[in-house]
Known about the structure:
The complex is a heterotrimer. Chain B is an all-alpha fold. Chain B has helices at residues 8-22, 27-58, 80-86, 91-122, 128-138, 147-156, 163-187, 191-199, 204-233, 236-241, 250-255, 265-295, and strands spanning 258-259, 262-263.
Amino acid sequence: MATAITAPDLEPASTYAERRGRLLPYVVIGPSLLVIGGILAFPLGWLVWLSLQHYGLKELINHQGQWVGLKNYQAILADPLFHQVIVRTLLFTFACVALTVVLSTLIALLLLKVRRAVRVIVMSSLVFVWATPVIVAVDIWQWMFDYEFGVINYLLTQLHLGNFIHHNWFDNPFQGWAVVLVIVVWGAIPFVTILLFAGLLQVPSEVVDAAHVDGAGPWQRYRFVTAPILKPVYLIVICLSTIWDFGVFNQPYVLLNERPSADYYTIAIYSYRESFGVTQYGLGAAIAVILVVVLAFVTLFYVRETVRAAEIA
Amino acid sequence: MIVPGAAQGVRVGTASDRARVDLGVNLWQRSKQLLFDTVGIAVAAVMLFPIYWMVATAFKPGRDILTLTPKWFPSPLTLQNFQDAITRPYFLDDVKNSLIIVGVMLVLALVIGFLAAVGAARFGFRGRTAYLVMIIAVQMVPLNALIIPLYLQLDGIGQVDALPGVIAIYLAAVLPFMIWTLRGFVANIPVELEESAMIDGSTRFGAFWRITFPLVAPGLVATAIFSCIQAWNEYIIAYVLLSSPRNQTVTVWLASFTTNHGPEWGPLMAGATITGLPVVVFFLLLQRYLVGGLTAGSVKG
Amino acid sequence: MNLRKTWIGVIGIGFALVVAACGGNGSSNNNNPANETGTLTIWLMNGSAPPTVVDGVNADFKAKYPNVTVNVEIQQWGDIGTKLDTAYAGSTPPDVVELGNTLVAKYAAAGALEDISGKRSSFDNSGTWLQSLTDSCTVNGKLYCVPYYAGSRAVIYRKDLFTAAGISNPPATMDELLSDGQKLMTTNSSDPNFSALYFPGKYWYAALPFVWDFGGDIAKQSSGKWAGTLNSSSSQQGLTTLSNLVSKLSRADKTGDEAKQDAAFAQGHIAMIIANGWEVGVITDPKAGNPALADKLGAFPIPSHSSGQTAPVFLGGSDLGVAAKSPHRDLANAWIQTFTDQKNMTQMATVGGVIPNTTSLLGLGTGLNAVFYGAAKNSKFVPNSENWANVENANVLPDMLVKIFTGQQSIPDATAAASTRITSILNGGG
């Protein structure tokens, strides 16, 4: 694509204009660093420092913790619940991201094919979903899946797919997590679809048509023509989705009336529960730090690709 | 992402569709189109169903809401829930607060974020990789984990229970995403476009403003909408930081509909419909720039 | 750059911030109330006090302390723990907070609340405060808050359904409860949604009376250490009786909680629920409930397994605590004194419909409320440990009940596991 941008900026001349040019990048990104650093530097540092302390409610009120070094991390890593939760969160994230990306791709491709009126209807529906506050949306879903009053139970029974009257969806964690998956993916589709659609509009139809003329079927056209052009969009979308889905908190939490059982913990819920549930802020902080480390590992590939792409562009 | 001339793709498609119709009835094409359209409507219906349920419930009288057999249409229709919701104390105050918070945050985020995105996309400088990595890494930290230190930090400067504190936090939370996404949009517009305009005599800034900026506009719109939604619907930070009802946001106001014997469904759904409305209106106003900007003519070739 | 202007600006902003941070400090050292100044911040929970009562209290207080500004802020129950944690950690916590009675021990033990043992007599009716509420305020022998109001549970039932099933009097023992319930189930066997006693699985507040009635308890403390006792034979006996009732008489969600039970009751397919007094109002609410049921409702206390007695009930409710860090502790206590004085407490009972904090006013219960007020006399509380809130947050009791009712675990196994967990948490573990 474009040539390296750095070249023109590193000319050896040293006039005032040149020096100002060399300062320009820092001036431009400066405010952002100031805001992000100013607001988040202390909390992030505090989080790490907190993870090395024994910090309960008394310590919080007196602003005085007890140093325990890595004991919190040892305790968590030794806890079988932690391992269950981390594995569960990883699997859940994978399922969410895969489903979201696949469904969003299909819908985005569909948007190219439908007539304009339908496209406006579909995009508007996506925006309505996007604009609904998560907590309200989960309330509605919870009610739709309700044991007694739920529409889903009623519909499934009416469609003769079995007797779902008084069926409890959260009895069995597999079913319960399936419900959470549906809710998270439903909420995630609008943004990803819109971004992918924006990307698809940039794919030159001449190239796609040429492939069509050469005898490529729809799947091959997508795989060998469209997808590679969309690679940067997919990188961003998958990376973001992974980060967001790994940190899922609201959906299971609100779905289970703010009292999820251990079967329904995600790593983010586990961290919050340790912090505010049993007021062990040190443990909660350690879990949060582990969450970030694991997430960094998981997204390493995508982050490296994105940064590398940024260097070249 | 935005390659000159590519946007023609859609127009070319339309032209060829017209050509096909002009050539007479091609049953296979027509039924394929019908199939796509039907699937499209079905997708919209499935996605919208919970929202429909929310809005329909807002119009149902209380006793029709939690029924053992679902009532598909609100009949009798009532505006009681909306009235109930609007007359709750501090509704207008909270709407005003939300508007202020999101408005100020959005303006600041767009200015600071766009500048930074351009800087990161267009310039090479020492520490650029570190900056980019920092931007991505910061997004991995769950905001919930930072509630206490954020609170203590603001407490230290007396900004608890005050809007500026919340604005600052939302800004810091939204900037990384905005910078990262916008950087991608800007980077995908080749420098040659600006350079060719500069050869024609315009300044660097002028070239940027007239060539690059319109091409980035859809990206700006998408990230603006996204940031608005995040800030508008955010609950826990607003709840913990703002305690006087006069200072709270509309999302916290919504929480007051859930008492310890469960949510008051009718007024809650009415309230949710009302609070979701501004975001939808915001999108509808801007959507022409989102999609239109992508299909508007760009430099060919 | 104009350096001087910048410095003035910085100093100005800094000054403004300092002033803002220092705002709200009034003097409370004068003895003359009319000279006291300052701002009091009061946090009350959503739905606890009727607005008219609060206004009345503030009017009374204003008459005594004309120069003190009082801000009453209503807070939401959801995530209140998080909000309280941060508020008490900060430098300006609210001066007075309404705390759910199961939360107090946690904050008192952590040093968030003022020790008011010496000021007890300054509050009206302190000699006749409800024992359970007073217990909830007492940690290590010291008093850390003032009882505010209570809630107790009894059985709300449909008189018409009882008549239709041929039952002339409400059951007086647990055996009668079972047999009456079975009569109701038979009479209404054609209704697949019917429950004689609707009991959601996680409803631990309603399960405790059964445990207590047979002499069991959640935990006992000896020489400073707690031991979970849900696996004692008496506790297990109580749970067995309850489990029997639930399996025979209830079609409620065995893994759900009691939040929707009033709406369900209003739909008309339920004969009995165990509920708080104020739930009558929710059931008959003209907007969301079924007002037609109003004259069909009756109430009776949860029967004991021994005749002539009633089962001890869990006393819910709230207390009022003063923040230890508050710069206006005397004013805060004065406000609480006004809020809980004879006149206003009477208003709370008559207008708010909640149980007042003193046995001397229990006679105010009229109609159905009399049953709930009466039940409050025979009430018990959860283990008064600073770590009890953690037991609640770890869902030990609801999860145990769900396992029992769904048959996933036998009662001995489920109670043993729960007891072990409770022992560990109450003694400071996790």
